Amino acid sequence: MKILSKGGVRKLYFDGHVHTPFCPHGSTDTFEMYIERAISLGMKGMTFTEHAPLPQTFVDPAPTKDSSMTHEQLGKYFDTLRELKKYYRSKIEIFTGLEVDFIDGYEEETNTFLKEVWPELDDAILSVHFLKVKNNYFCMDYDENVFRDLIEQSGSLSAVYSLYFQTVKKSITHSFGKYQPRRIGHMTLAKKFQSLFPSNFSYNNEVEEILTVLSERNMYLDYNGAGAVKPYCLEPYPSNWIIKEAQKRKIPLVYGSDAHSAKGLGQGLDQFVSTATLTSPLLLNRAE
């Protein structure tokens, strides 16, 4: 782990959460467009973390069925990054990563997948996008209409928040053995539509439990700028008070733009806690 920024005037040195043209719900911007933009921003490194293929027996609940790349695309994804690493090695350090979904009930298939791709990975994020309610799965961040349906099926907004945080905690405490992603993605994604569905309840206990298990397992947190540019959220994931609590526990924070286009690199950074210390990720297949 390298400490890259200790607050004050914020300069971006590393982006640990970047999507690619392999994302079916993203842009058509090329890898080169992302990389050249990163270089122009003064970055020293970046991790491409495309949405990993979903378990083959899992039916994508997103209305457009476009949550991730396919299993058939994986080989080309890894090959492309291998070539780009060589080409740009004198200008910027590029890491090969994936954003892997934790889906309640599909842990075994996810573990098998991680074992298969592990030799290719420098970095990985474990995220929760799908919530299970009454044996049905919802892509909770798809849009406000899906989120409204999720609330109705769950019974209340507080039930959605509780289920989300329980699932995030489960993603941390579930053992993937030696194939454990070391960073948790956008841990307050449930707040994506908060101005439409404002909360009037406390979820502090759930957050405290998550931070405790993160600290106990020496895991990292994705300090995600995407929420700051979402029109119904307008704050980073997680919220500032959570970042301050994470810092007290010395949980490492890795900036992630969660960019789905080259122009998204660096987004949200201006709304980060000014005293937050940002680091580079813990690389999976290397001794640090």
TrEMBL record:
GO cellular component: cytoplasm
This protein's record includes keyword Amino-acid biosynthesis: yes
Pfam families: PHP (PF02811)
Database matches in CDD domains: PHP_HisPPase_Hisj_like
Family to which this protein belongs: Belongs to the PHP hydrolase family. HisK subfamily.
Record EC number: 3.1.3.15
Protein name as catalogued: Histidinol-phosphatase
Pathway(s) of this molecule: Amino-acid biosynthesis; L-histidine biosynthesis; L-histidine from 5-phospho-alpha-D-ribose 1-diphosphate: step 8/9
GO terms of biological process kind: L-histidine biosynthetic process
Keyword Amino-acid biosynthesis: yes
Domain PHP: from-to ranges: 15-224
PANTHER family xrefs: HISTIDINOL PHOSPHATASE-RELATED (PTHR21039), HISTIDINOL-PHOSPHATASE (PTHR21039:SF0)
Single Gene Ontology MF annotation: histidinol-phosphatase activity
Organism of derivation: Fictibacillus phosphorivorans
Keywords annotated in UniProt: Amino-acid biosynthesis, Histidine biosynthesis, Hydrolase
Domain of life: Bacteria
Catalytic activities: L-histidinol phosphate + H2O = L-histidinol + phosphate
InterPro entries attached to this UniProt entry: Histidinol_P_phosphatase_HisJ (IPR010140), PHP_dom (IPR004013), Pol/histidinol_Pase-like (IPR016195)
